[in-house]
Design a protein that fits this description.
The complex is a heterodimer of chains A (about 200) and B (about 160).
Chain A lengths: L2 H11 L7 E2 L6 E2 L4 E5 L4 E5 L1 H7 L7 E2 L5 E3 L6 H6 L6 E9 L2 E10 L2 E5 L18 E6 L4 E6 H14 L6 H18 L1 E3 L3
Chain B lengths: L1 H20 L4 H30 L2 H12 L2 H9 L7 H9 L5 E7 L2 E6 L6 H15 L5 E5 L9 H8 L1
The chains are: A alpha+beta (about 200), B mainly alpha (about 160).
Chain lengths: ~200, ~160
């Protein structure tokens, strides 16, 4: 047995020494529920303590604080024709308004077993709800199968992508991944406030 | 070679872990996992004490540690528990000390890129020897790339001239 393989075998057995996450800015240990900041230039999420999250939340800062609120939209629907035009192979996608050197663009992503895939189509007029998104930190999440639409924090979209990556099995994904997706949408619905945009 | 049995034992552990993962009963599986974790935790704590005690004995302590880390089994476990006195790069460079004509291009995040300078060593034999030495000294490596070996398809001019002479 190769020493490198042997080492990896042993490493998998070592108990997780310190599962706590640390603030990406000040290294303070974090509770399982903590703030996230996003760097709009790289779109990387950084775990953050509350003090750093408040400190860095201003328009000039490198990072933006990701809000926590989830809104369930009741006034939102995308027609089949509009949806088909996006050529997204699965019924789940999220839309983000991204700022890049002063100009805004709408990007569409869908989760895949290999990570998030960006749709290359132009998506300027998908839905008016997109105008209500806070740039970079919020997304419009669409679950076509259930006809559900959410405005939610971008870190939850990253989590959804992570669920798809870790639970996908074989060619079709298997039942486990779809159960996880279902649980995710249930959780979002229970956390959400209803937004009828009235 | 005494280390053979160490590698074989880990091979056996690998098989048993796979069997444990296949157990359908979730309670039994969780108990087995926790048992392994507890035993390893105890091992790690004991190793840590050894290192701490050795540190109290100055030069004698460091000669003891030097002797211990020359043992593959001890060295692997010290690395595993984050107790090895030498960092990754030091271990890799140490393993290469006996090889001539091996140049370190980069060592970064567990990824090692080396170049074997052709003509200076008996290439084919030395590449596997280099790989073996590094795997033992730095089993926590992520990737090892060796440039300039026969597999690259590049035939050095000297070897052609040498063949004709």
């Amino acid at each position: 047995m190769n020493p490198v393989v042997a080492f990896q075998t042993l490493r998998r057995l070592v108990p997780q020494a310190d599962p706590a996450e640390h603030c990406g800015l000040c290294r303070q240990a974090l509770a399982p529920q903590h703030d996230h900041l996003i760097d709009p230039r790289t779109r990387r999420l950084v775990c953050s303590c509350q003090a750093c999250a408040i400190l860095f939340h201003n328009p000039a800062a490198q990072y933006k604080r990701v809000p926590k609120q989830v809104r369930f939209l009741t006034d939102c629907d995308i027609s089949d024709a509009d949806w088909d035009a996006l050529m997204i192979p699965i019924g789940i996608a999220f839309f983000v308004k991204q700022t890049n050197e002063g100009s805004d663009r709408i990007a569409a992503y869908y989760p895949s077993p290999a990570g998030p895939v960006e749709s290359l189509l132009s998506l300027e007029d998908v839905h008016p709800a997109i105008d209500r998104l806070e740039p970079d930190t919020q997304a419009l999440l669409v679950n076509r199968a259930a006809g559900e639409y959410f405005i939610l924090p971008i870190d939850e979209c990253y989590r959804l992508v992570g669920l798809m990556r870790t639970h996908w099995k074989g060619l079709s994904g298997g039942s486990e991944v779809w159960r996880e997706m279902q649980l995710f949408f249930q959780e979002m619905k229970s956390r959400a406030v209803v937004d009828d945009h009235a | 070679m005494q280390d053979r049995s160490f590698q074989e034992r880990i091979g056996r552990i690998e098989t048993l872990v796979a069997e444990m993962e296949a157990v359908a009963d979730p309670v039994a599986k969780a108990a087995a996992k926790e048992l392994v974790a507890c035993v390893m935790d105890l091992n790690a704590a004991a190793f840590e004490r050894v290192v701490q005690v050795a540190a109290r004995y100055g030069t004698a302590g460091s000669s003891l540690m030097d002797a211990l880390i020359r043992d593959e089994a001890v060295s692997s476990l010290l690395i595993l528990y984050g107790l090895h006195p030498h960092d990754f790069e030091t271990r890799v460079r140490g393993a290469l000390r006996n090889f001539h004509g091996v140049k370190v291009i980069s060592i970064e995040d567990g990824r090692i890129v080396l170049r074997i300078e052709t003509g200076k060593t008996e290439d084919a034999g030395s590449e596997s020897a280099v790989r073996q030495a590094i795997a033992i000294a730095a089993p926590d490596l992520v990737d090892l790339i060796i440039e300039g070996t026969a597999q690259s398809g590049f035939v050095p001019l000297e070897s052609l001239i040498g063949a004709r002479a």
